[in-house]
Write a structure and sequence with these properties.
Layout lengths: L2 H4 L7 E7 L7 H12 L3 E7 L5 H10 L4 E4 L13 E2 L1 H6 L4 E7 L5 E3 L12 E6 L2 H13 L7 E5 L3 H12 L4 E5 L3 H14 L4 E3 L11 E4 L25 E4 L8 H8 L3 E3 L2 H16 L5 H13 L6
Parallel strand pairs: 1-2, 1-3, 4-7, 8-9, 8-11, 9-10, 11-12, 12-13
Antiparallel strand pairs: 3-5, 5-6, 5-7
Helix pairs in contact: 2-9, 2-10, 5-6, 5-9, 6-7, 9-10
Length: 314
């Protein structure tokens, strides 16, 4: 299907979307619509700013309108866990949902993904299934963008919300030696720490910054601080010197270089933003919806063009 054909909406067009607050920075529509076009699907991927108190209504609306599926970003990943009808093993393990697939029940009782059905309007019963594609994506991006294996490393993680919780558990599962969980609300960090202790007792845990002078292999920002121009730094530079940090990763990808990454780069750290993580969680989501292998390079190029401009596209 050509771009011209794909741009024509009609009564058979199916929809997927990302919900978040804020959402205007999202590059997911550029990436997902490129993948959808490559597959020749009569779909559209949209982005909606949804307030936390209106998330349930928005989820019900997508379900009633037979959306193919949804992606969820800040601050909805934890809230959606209790809403979906079914939860896959990864979402259960990591305790957060970032991808939802809607399925319809056939006449013989089987559940068929909306995006893989010949006629989604036939379904009277619709259910939602929650997935988590963040966990694998973060490790893949750290390995690819920083060339860093995490076994036996010392890591400092900023943020213990939905994305931070998943990152913390995944870092622990990768065999980090020591993990420092830093969060403004200490009780959230304590809850994540408790989960890690029960699942990965061999990991050394702390809710404070390392002692001054300690070499830190990875400093990872999983907070939303940096999305806005006037945001404060997510890291306390009085508690940790960036000169002792080898690698800095920011889950934020737009702006492409946050103040946090600028600070890290000036101190000599290797740095990466969250574009790689977005790519791999996005390709996994498209595969969940379509049942097909995602066109990774097409989606990567669309992301780079959206964030960096065409001259910087890979």
């Amino acid at each position: 299907m050509s771009l011209i054909q794909q741009s024509s909406l009609n009564a058979s067009t199916l929809y997927a979307a990302v919900y978040g607050h804020p959402i205007r920075h999202s590059a997911s529509p550029a990436m997902q619509n490129a993948g959808i076009t490559e597959h020749g699907l009569n779909w559209r991927y949209l982005a909606f700013d949804v307030l936390p108190e209106q998330l349930t209504e928005a989820l019900k609306g997508a379900k009633a309108m037979r959306y193919v599926g949804l992606n969820l970003t800040v601050p909805h990943k934890l809230l959606a866990l209790d809403w979906v009808d079914e939860v896959d093993s990864a979402a259960k393990e990591w305790g957060a949902v970032n991808t939802i697939r809607f399925e319809g029940q056939s006449e013989v009782g089987t559940w068929v993904p909306i995006g893989q059905a010949e006629d989604p309007t036939q379904f009277k019963n619709i259910r939602s299934v929650g997935f988590n594609t963040d966990a694998e994506a973060i490790l893949k991006s750290i390995d690819e963008d920083l060339g860093l294996t995490l076994k036996d490393r010392t890591c400092v993680l900023l943020g213990a919300g939905g994305a931070g919780r998943v990152a913390a558990l995944k870092l622990a599962s990768a065999g980090v030696k020591r993990l420092h969980l830093i969060n403004r609300t200490r009780s959230k960090a304590e809850a994540v720490s408790s989960d890690i202790r029960s699942k990965y007792p061999e990991v050394g845990l702390s809710l404070d910054y390392p002692e001054q002078g300690t070499q830190v292999d990875l400093l990872l920002n999983a907070t939303s601080l940096g999305l806005k121009l006037n945001d404060p730094l997510p890291v306390d530079l009085g508690a940790i010197s960036m000169k002792n940090v080898l690698n800095a990763y920011d889950m934020i990808y737009q702006p492409a270089q946050t103040a946090f990454l600028r600070e890290a780069e000036q101190a000599g750290c290797r740095t990466a933003n969250g574009l790689g993580m977005l790519l791999y969680q996005g390709t996994a989501a498209l595969e969940i919806w379509t049942g097909r292998t995602a066109p990774t390079e097409t989606m990567r190029t669309a992301l780079h063009e959206h964030v960096y401009g065409k001259l910087s596209a890979l």
